[in-house]
Amino acid sequence: MPDHAISPTRAEDYPEWYQQVVKAADLAEQSPVRGCMVIKPHGYAIWERMQTILDRMFKATGHQNAYFPLFIPLSYLEQEAKHVEGFAKECAVVTHHRLELGPDGKLIPTGKLEEPLVVRPTSETIIGAMYAKWIQSWRDLPMLINQWANVVRWEMRPRVFLRTSEFLWQEGHTAHATSEEAVEETLRMLDVYATFAERDLAMPVVKGPKTAAERFPGAVDTYSIEAMMQDGKALQAGTSHFLGQNFARGQNIKFASTSGAEEFCWTTSWGVSTRLVGAVIMTHSDDDGLVLPPRIAPHQIVLLPIHRTDEEKAAVMEACRKLEAELSAATFGGEPIRAKIDARDMRGGDKVWQHIKQGVPVRVEIGPRDLAAGAGSMTRRDRGPKERVAVPLAEFASRAPTLLEEIQQGLFERAKAFRAERTVRLDSAADVHVFFGAGEGPGEGSARGGFAHVHVADDPAVAAAFDPLKVTVRCVPMEGNDEPGTCVVTGKPVPRRSVLARSY
RNA sequence: CGGAGCGUAGCGCAGUUGGUAGCGCGCUUGGUUUGGGACCAAGAGGUCGAGAGUUCGAAUCUCUCCGCUCCGACCA
Fold first, then answer.
1. In the predicted model, what is the mean pLDDT of residues A293-297?
2. Beta bridge partners of A72
């Protein structure tokens, strides 16, 4: 066997490594439908973890869930000019509502719709149409609603989890009486995403507003959290938009204010998607497969009984069940610890490697020898596959929360250190060109780059200057960044540095 | 949608100048094993991506289409 479970390794071929990890961890696979993936149980379980945690956070910030239609009348999309422009190119359109059996046995779409329906690429317009009905008075505000749904964006180049034609996400849509309140909401939800990314996904992110070119179609301001993947590329992990009154005007979302005047609402929208699963993979995984932070791992601890005879089996299984019960009674991150006994009848080595490839944070083997010593053999996914530690069974459950916290924190620190190593401050366009290695050779380019903090203006000339490098302005970091300077392209004065990177 | 590559068993691949399908892993069964991706034996599994054409004969040659991957344009 090679010394790692995934081939090729990250260093050899990063994109291919990513796909092999998805396959080895049994997260998802290609479907018969072009550009669409099947999310398999293990991949879906990770998404469910994300949903559970985020949903709790949305509720805690006063939001309620609701559900709006998959189909959006074509005319709705036309209500905000920039919105149409932004999404028109990638929409799936339903034009018929019936199938008839043709003479050759083929099914023929018939029953042409009077008005074509667009499969939602996002739901601003249809939710706005409902808000226009629901909101009449300042007493109806703020309107704070979230929807868990699928959306379709007909992408040219799909990549599992990162960019598929259909994906799952959550979209929050809120309406407010004042601009200040709406901006506050936009930033609050950006913070929710940042907290979730760092605390639960152990993925350090940079928060900040986008440049005009990268803004959501129809938004006044778009904010994002940007994470660095292990190839140095940036991944937009979540977005929060301040929509101003743009959509409210287009869709007539009005309210009577306390003074009795009729005013347009100020709206926001924000979302994260199954892309986060890809983000987690590319942030933590190694050449042995998936590595999951404990907080989002469907199973945090797997117990592996080892036995030969029936007597051994009885004793070992009893010890496993006892430990499983103790672990389930203990808590980590405010939830019961998720432990599982894997008693499947298969070879121990295969079984262990399966759990390694699937990213289970902690494995505990319990065999007759361990039992005699009152111990279990523990291995951690964030350490080498053969670094085993004997742990006393009597105390393991009480120590487990600390252990999981240590792993969670360790992964976060490791990711932060990685990002720090690949983050630089540059003060000239020439340095940017050098850093991102203008002339990259095959197989080498993927290892280059990172985040460059540079003074640049929000100006098309900046995008044009770095376009040949495939580098874009990811966002203008809001924290620890108040050093004024002059734009390295246009020479204009700017109040702070921006993050430049290649991106997914 | 442009450029490149690929499509043969669940996975990874071989199959030369056209002659009717093979290897490794995996899977099933039996046995030997078992604290680190076991070994022996016997088996199951393929309209060679789809369609058309050339030919006595096509996985192999020609054309068209479909899908996947990478690189561009677009994006969460």
1. 97
2. A118
ipTM for the whole complex: 0.83
Q: How confident is the model at residue A448 (pLDDT cuts 50, 70, 90)?
A: low
Q: What is the sign, positive or negative, of the torsion defined by CA atoms of A247, A75, A145, A222? A: negative
Nearest to A456 by CA among A490, A501, A503: A490
User: Tokens 């080892």 correspond to what residue?
Assistant: A306
pLDDT at A334: 95
Q: What percent of chain A has pLDDT over 70?
A: 97
A16 touches strand B (CB under 7 A): yes
Pairwise CA distance, residues A214 & A212, whole Å: 6
How many angstroms is C1' of B63 away from CA of A222? 50
List strand B contacts in A 360-379 (CB < 7 A).
Answer: 365-371, 376-377, 379
Mean pLDDT, to the nearest integer, of A359-385?
93
In total, chain A counts a number of residues equal to 504
Instruction: Indicate the range of A118-132, A232-246, A468-482 predicted with least confidence.
Output: A468-482
Q: So what's the architecture of A299-403 in CATH?
A: 3-Layer(aba) Sandwich (3.40)
CA A48 to chain CA centroid, nearest Å: 12
pLDDT (0 to 100) of residue A438 = 52
Instruction: Report the distance from CA of residue A231 to the C1' of nucleotide B71 in Å, as an integer.
Output: 17
CA torsion sign for A307, A311, A314, A315 is negative
Sign of CA dihedral A351, A352, A355, A356: negative
Q: Could you tell me the pTM of the whole model?
A: 0.94
Q: Which positions 101-130 on chain A have a beta carbon less than 7 angstroms from any atom of strand B?
A: none
Q: What dotted CATH number matches A423-501?
A: 3.30.110.30
Tracing tokens 């639960």 back to the chain, one arrives at A200
Reported as a single tens digit per residue, the pLDDT across A242-264 is 999 999 999 999 999 999 999 99
Confidence of residue A149 (pLDDT cuts 50, 70, 90): very high
**Nucleotide nearest to A386 in CA–C1' terms:** B36
Nearest-nucleotide field for A153 (CA, C1'):
B75
Nucleotide nearest A19, CA–C1', reads B69
CATH superfamily of A14-284: Bira Bifunctional Protein; Domain 2 (3.30.930.10)
CA of A31, C1' of B66: distance in angstroms? 14
| Nearest residue to A50 via CA among A223, A270, A278, A269 | A278
